[in-house]
Amino acid sequence: MANKVRIGFIGAGGIARAHIKRLMDIPEAEVVAFADPSEASVGRMKEEHPHTAAIPFFADYRDMLARVPMDAVEIHTPHTQHFEQGMAVFAAGKHLLMEKPMVCTVPHAHQLMEAGKGKVFMVSYQRHFQGSYACVRDLIQSGALGKVQYVAALQSQGWLRGTRGTWRQCKALSGGGQLNDSGSHLIDVLLWATGLAADTVFATCCNYDSEVDIDSAVALRFTNGAQGTLSVIGDSPMWWEEFSVWGSEGAVLYRNGTVLARRYGETEMREVTDLPPDSTPDRNFIDAILRRDEVRVPPECGLRVIELTEAAWRSAEECRPVRVSELA
């Protein structure tokens, strides 16, 4: 393959404009087409990034796939559309970077992963490329904390009020509320950093006046026997994110970008400041296609996230613990 990757975009909304900005800094990437039925989204894309006015836009992504030569596709659309669009991308023989969450059901995750075999397929969980989160993972995966025994993760955000009136609170398009939206990042980084997979999930959710979940309280047991809690607060006056991991040999705490650690035998918590460099999913996607790097957010990450998420939804609905094995 030549050292130039031709990319088509399915979706031209706000998150797509962020991806375009990142791709502009990657000489090996060339965006060759857009597909979005919203004239308003297309107009905002052209206004914010004037160079895109010279790129063809399509109302139907299937027309784009059929008519424009390209090597890869990025999908930036409402969550429940991901599965159908992703299957079409793989049927067309393209590589795929998909915004989170990968899909909204466990069976769809398995089907999409099967369809994507042989292609570069990754999910755009950007925390994998941020130094503070990568540092936490490195500490855990190095064995410095021993066996992971307990995890606790919390995210608060003004999601209820900030997304009111948008597709994100329309269940037919979003598939669910904050747990499946920005909460998806928290679930992903917890599972990726620890290497754990959910076994049993017991959850309660509060929707307030929305048709989707806003606040979620989730108790977890993982396949290695570890326990944990996950708190997603969608009606909050501020952004706050933290997750903590306790192992048999020590603990690490992430607090809104600050990483603290302590091992048994040490006298106090220490801030970890030697962090890995930041990067982006788009950079990794291009490098993986050009065989310069491995895929750092494989679809298995998307599968683990929807396993936990779908189990939490069912648990809240049925008022009982749900095992992930029930969802396949």
Topology record:
Layout: E1 5-10, H1 14-23, E2 29-35, H2 39-48, E3 57-58, H3 61-67, E4 72-75, H4 82-91, E5 95-98, H5 106-115, E6 121-123, H6 131-141, E7 148-156, H7 159-162, H8 171-174, H9 182-194, E8 198-206, E9 215-222, E10 227-233, E11 240-247, E12 250-255, E13 258-263, E14 270-271, H10 281-289, H11 299-318, E15 322-323
Parallel strand pairs: 1-2, 1-4, 2-3, 4-5, 5-6, 7-10
Antiparallel strand pairs: 7-11, 8-9, 8-15, 9-10, 11-12, 12-13, 13-14
List keywords for this structure.
328 residues, alpha/beta, Rossmann fold, Dihydrodipicolinate Reductase, domain 2, nine-stranded mixed β-sheet, six-stranded parallel β-sheet, 33% helix
Description:
By secondary structure, the protein is α/β, with parallel strands linked by helices. The protein is built from 11 helices and 15 strands. The chain folds into 2 domains: 5-126 and 282-295, NAD(P)-binding Rossmann-like Domain (Rossmann fold); 127-266 and 305-326, Dihydrodipicolinate Reductase, domain 2 (2-Layer Sandwich), CATH 3.30.360. A hairpin with a 2-residue loop joins strand 11 and strand 12.
Brief overview:
The protein contains eleven helices and 15 strands. It has 328 residues and is of the alpha/beta class. It has two domains: 5-126 and 282-295, NAD(P)-binding Rossmann-like Domain (Rossmann fold); 127-266 and 305-326, 2-Layer Sandwich (Dihydrodipicolinate Reductase, domain 2), CATH 3.30.360.10.
Q: Low-confidence parts, pLDDT < 50 over ≥5 residues?
A: none
What is the class of the largest domain in the CATH system?
Alpha Beta
CATH topology (fold) name of the largest domain = Dihydrodipicolinate Reductase, domain 2
* Total count of domains: 2
Shape: globular
